[in-house]
Amino acid sequence: MTGKYVVSVIVLVAISLAGCSQKEQKVPLEDVGLVGSLSLDYIDEDQMKLTVAIPQYSKEAKKQTQIYSVVTELMSEGMVEIEKNSHKKVILNQLRVVLVDEESARSGQATKVIRSLYRNAEVANKVLVAVVKGNAEEILRAEYPDKPAINFYLSDLLQAKMNTAFNPNTNFHDFMYTQTNPVIDTIMPSIEGKDGLIELNGVALFDEEKMIKILSPQDALIIQALQGRKKIAPLYLSMNHESYGKEILLLDLIHSKVKIKSNKNFESPKVSITLKVSGTLAEYKGARERDLDKKEAIVKLEKDIDAEIKRDIGKFLEKLKELKVDPIGLSENFRMYYNGKWTTEQTKEIISKLEWDVSVEVTIISTGTLK
């Protein structure tokens, strides 16, 4: 037998064995569990409750989605246990949403799980993440009669929409980017179940690996505006004017433009913030109403809104200064003038000493319902 013949036989056998191996690895679709959503609930510093939602495609299935929960110490161990319970090969290729309860977010446990999932080659980096007020498992198990299956409902809820533009739509890539970036702190949407619905109720603010606070939608809107988002959610304002009393108004279809400059001083840091906002006065109600048919009255209202937004921004920056966190990225305006490696500790130091000068210019381009 010649050498060439021997080599040819070996190659053919290898190809044949590889083909058999691939055939053995194929799993029928009905035997695969494609996880669409996953939730994490804190048990203690070592254990967590892992819950997955797996859609059912069989016409004979009584429910659209099967839910499985296990208590585990490790993510991989929990997935093995879930696979045993489901009697299917459970995979994460179709994972869309990960929910974490507040306790796991505050403890830092959630960050470890997200990092583990991010390193998993099966999981896409566009998976959306959110903090749940209350129990995360209950969000997956609850019934929502007027909504689609839970995997689609959650994914759609957390996508970008104009009326919920305060929602940062945080995905795995965003989360890991801010976790590894020393000039900006992590934020992600906060949700809660209420009256058969899931609502966005604010934004979770992190200090490095641990969540420290849930911000209001108004505060989250300030973050979006100061980060330079051009289109932001409708802005609700309640003002107490010395001449007009209590006023309530809603600015809609808002376009914004921001410019931030630093004094480049690391010992006495200060930023100048100029925010320009234009939009429609969708609704207005005042105790003693302004005559908004006149241009002079509109101009006066614009100036009063300027002052109100300026106060709100100042109050929010005071919160950040007290907490020593920077979800906006203000410290980047100092880092760019620093020669050397910038650290998280330097960001904290800058924010803790930061002063600011805020200028706001509001333009009402049209009016809606006025009462």
Short description:
The protein is of the alpha/beta class and 371 residues long. The chain has 11 helices and 15 strands.
Sum up the structure in keywords.
alpha/beta; 8-stranded mixed β-sheet; 11 helices; about 35% helix
Question: What does this entry look like structurally?
Answer:
This protein is α/β, with parallel strands linked by helices and 371 residues long. Helices cover 34% and strands 33% of the residues. It has 11 helices and 15 strands. It has helices at residues 3-25, 75-86, 102-107, 109-118, 136-141, 150-157, 172-179, 217-226, 295-323, 332-335, 344-353; strands at residues 32-34, 37-42, 48-55, 65-72, 89-91, 97-101, 128-132, 187-194, 197-207, 210-215, 231-232, 235-241, 245-262, 270-286, 355-370. Strands 4-3-2-6-7-8-9-10 form an 8-stranded mixed β-sheet, with helices on both faces. Strands 11, 12, 13, 14 and 15 form a 5-stranded mixed β-sheet that branches. A hairpin with a 3-residue loop joins strand 12 (235-241) and strand 13 (245-262). It is globular, with a radius of gyration of 26 Å. The relative contact order is 0.09. Mean pLDDT is 88; it is low at 4-13 and 20-24.
